Amino acid sequence: MTKKNKTETGTICLNKKAGFDFFLLDRYESGLVLQGWEVKSLRAGKVQIKDSYILVKDREAFLFGALITPLQSASTHIFPESQRTRKLLLNRGELNKLIGSVERKGLAIVPTAMYWKNGRVKLEIALAKGKKEFDKRETEKARDWNREKERLFKK
């Protein structure tokens, strides 16, 4: 019986910064168009989506700024580009909702998590509204208060 990696069965990476910088409204699940070396790097956990964002261009969604670090054992005949633009796979209805929200309401689309589902890489994206500085301070105060409350109840 073989032992599976933790990345094989669940989350590859999270974008915790998105929850701090934005109010996350609707969440969607999308697939990614990846190359072979990128999948190998994802299995090794060498990915970062903290500074990435999603743009809609020509009625298609693309992931910009995601950093997938190539492995040292990558093939010699390909030249891996770690921050290339990757296409998102969404159905037409979801894509139309995202386009309408971004154009009419002025919302942004941010990636929140990357994970495995049935052997395929999925990206969780969210419609997001930017937070102001006072909203961020309020979130920080609430988080600190909840942490303090847990400490008090523990004793």
From TrEMBL:
InterPro entries per record? SmpB, SsrA-bd_prot, SsrA-bd_prot_CS
Locate the region Disordered.
Answer: 132-155
Q: Which Pfam families has this protein been placed in? A: SmpB (PF01668)
**Cellular localisation:** Cytoplasm
- Keywords linked to the UniProt accession: Cytoplasm, RNA-binding
User: According to its record, what are the GO cellular component terms?
Assistant: cytosol
Q: Which GO terms describe its molecular function?
A: RNA binding
Q: Where's it mainly located?
A: cytoplasm
Q: SUPFAM superfamilies, alphabetically?
A: Small protein B (SmpB) (SSF74982)
- Which terms under GO biological process does the entry name? trans-translation; trans-translation-dependent protein tagging
Biological function: Required for rescue of stalled ribosomes mediated by trans-translation. Binds to transfer-messenger RNA (tmRNA), required for stable association of tmRNA with ribosomes. tmRNA and SmpB together mimic tRNA shape, replacing the anticodon stem-loop with SmpB. tmRNA is encoded by the ssrA gene; the 2 termini fold to resemble tRNA(Ala) and it encodes a 'tag peptide', a short internal open reading frame. During trans-translation Ala-aminoacylated tmRNA acts like a tRNA, entering the A-site of stalled ribosomes, displacing the stalled mRNA.
Q: Which family does it belong to?
A: Belongs to the SmpB family.
Q: What is this protein called?
A: SsrA-binding protein
Organism, by scientific name, is Beggiatoa alba B18LD
